[in-house]
Amino acid sequence: MANRAELTLDPLRLVARSSLRSLDHVGRFSFLVADLFRGLVEWRIWVRRMLEQAVAVGYGSLFIVLLVSAFAGAVTSLQTGYQFTGTLPLYYAGAVISESMILELGPVLTALILAGRIGARYAAELGTMRVTEQIDALESLGRSPVSHLLLPRVLAGLLVVPALTMLANATGIVVGYMVAKGSLGLTYGDFEYGARYFFRPLDLWYSLIKSYCFAAAVTLIPCYIGFNTQQGAEGVGRATTTAVVSASVAILLLDALTTRLLLVAK
Amino acid sequence: MIELINVSKRFVDNVVLDGVSLTVQEGETVALLGPSGVGKSVTLKTINGLLRPDTGDVIVDGLHVPKLKRKELSELRAKIGYVFQYGALFDSMTVAENIRLGITDETCYNDEKFCDNRVQECLRLVNLQLDVAGKYPAELSGGMKKRVGIARAIAGKPKYLLYDEPTSGLDPVNADVIDGLIERLRDELGVTAVVVSHDVRGSFRVADRVALLWQAKIRAVGRPEEILASQDSAVQQFLERDLEMALIQSDPRAKGGVQDTRGHHV
Questions:
Q1: What span, in angstroms and rounded, lies between the C-alpha atoms of A191 and A196?
Q2: Per-residue pLDDT tens for A16-39?
Q3: Most buried pick, A96, A228, B91, B236, via CB within 10 A?
Q4: pLDDT for A49-73, tens place per residue?
Q5: What residues 24-53 of chain B have any CB closer than 8 A to a CB of chain A?
């Protein structure tokens, strides 16, 4: 009897525990975000560190972001040619390549790459600092870990991710045009006509807004997870993996949400 | 003065501190002894507010630590130097930058000349060469890291010093050097200090009074000679265990010793 009662209770306990844990995370994450806003007044501390982080993260990610966006542009161009040749005017390729890059591929691919690069870096750095008591040491010196460690990282991400996204958009479009020129014989005039015909200024704003949302996910989530790391080297490994996976899932969710809010509702 | 009044702390189901009360008078050095995992470091972290007790009160310098607001806690922490078990030095900063972070007065912290002089002064106080200032923590030995940790803790001229296992992981010679250093800082700076340790000999050397933390409670408090003469079974058991450890350290072969791959004792 007792066993049956335990079996009935266990799923309930499991759900209750998970719900409590989720609520705990939501609460602590909200406090962290509030602390970040509070820390903005300590600009003397975070400005220099933010610039250092921005250079390290931005410059370090530039090559891989441009490489991936170039391939994305090339593949989009080839697939457009494969699907549309003979059915639609050639200038449509210009529209498909530029709109795909600006609206979806540029922001999402850049964010996913940076979730791996920046997310893993932030979570591992902060996690190691947590388990080696460096964060405790900072607090014990009466200094705020938020202003010294978190704010520079988050702001560097917010500075760098949108900039890299715009570069990725441009690279993808240029490479897409070059591939279309080579494989489809598309002229620059046709490409430009197609691209301009379907382009709306909102598209660029949309791309930029999306990249800011993704930048928040790429920086805040890994910082939160790294900052709350526990249990030594294993904990750091777990935090790093969790940070990358969570940031990537958040990017996909935000992608759907921003599209629904900014494009479909229009 | 530092006062712990009936402090209790548990982590999930593990009761770490159960009604711990201890008073450290101004200018006094108290050693908190006990086996590993008994809650010595937790006690130290409740003193500077890194951990909040579940029940009970901690009073430092007349302030109730668990009730302090963030800013008040930061101000109090500026008066408390904390030496971490493994140094907790910031890997990405040089020794000089690490020590400089310990200067808690913001005006002084922003004065380059003052900081350079203070860093040199602290290095001298902990018997380190001045050329160490430009090195990174990874380039230092364990004993040097501990000394830099102490230099950082005293850089802000604290009123209180908390040492968390200052000699753990060190060979007897280096442990002796650190004990001598604690003794010298006690005499020269006249700070109120709590030294957490499981090393009986070192603690008896540096402390005015000794407290034994045993099974989450303070089992005995007194002057070193009173503790040595105690008939309490827990005290005797702990002292005997330390004596055995001392024997092992002085003659590894007495206990079978540690052998290298060729069977030689190391």
A1: 9
A2: 888 998 899 999 999 999 999 998
A3: A96
A4: 999 999 998 998 999 999 999 999 9
A5: 45, 48, 50
List, edge to edge, every strand of the sheet that includes B209-214: B80-83, B160-164, B192-197, B29-33, B209-214, B217-222
Say whether B91 and A138 touch across the interface (CB within 8 A).
no
Q: What angle do CA B188, B189, B190 make, to 5 degrees?
A: 100
Residue B29: half-sphere exposure toward Cβ, Cα within 13 Å: 23
CATH number of B2-230: 3.40.50.300
Position A28 in a domain: no
Q: Name B137's bridge partners.
A: none
pLDDT tens, N- to C-terminus, chain A (266 residues): 445 555 566 888 888 888 998 899 999 999 999 999 998 998 888 999 999 999 998 998 999 999 999 999 999 999 988 887 777 787 888 889 999 999 999 999 999 999 999 999 999 999 999 999 999 999 998 888 999 999 999 999 999 999 999 999 999 999 999 999 888 888 889 888 988 888 888 899 999 999 999 999 999 999 999 999 988 889 999 999 999 999 999 999 999 999 888 887 54
Task: Considering only the beta carbons, identify the residue of B76, B88, B101 that sits closest to A136.
Answer: B88
Q: Does some domain include residue A189?
A: yes
Does B11 contact chain A (CB < 8 Å)?
Answer: no
Is A51 in a helix, a strand, or coil? helix
Number of folded domains in chain A?
Answer: 1
Residue A236: inside a domain: yes
Neighbouring C-beta atoms of residue B246, cutoff 10 Å: 14
Whether residues A140 and B80 touch (CB distance < 8 A) is answered with: yes
Q: Where are the domains of chain B?
A: 2-230
Q: Look up the ipTM and state it.
A: 0.81
Domain limits at A252?
A: 57-264
**Nearest chain A residue to B44, by CA:** A140
- Token pair recorded at residue A66: 């441009």
CA distance B181 to A143: 26
Enter the pTM of the model: 0.82
Q: Determine, for residues B45 and A144 on separate chains, whether the beta-carbon distance falls below 8 Å.
A: no
CA distances from A246 to A131, A149, B80, B238 (A): 21, 21, 38, 47
Report residue B72 as tokens. Answer: 């008040």
Given CB atoms, is B84 within the 8 Å cutoff of chain A? yes
Q: Which residue of A has its CA nearest to B105?
A: A142
- CB contact, 8 Å: A136 with chain B? yes
Inside any domain, residue A166: yes
B86 touches chain A (CB under 8 A): yes
| Chain A contact set for B156 (CB, 8 A) | 141
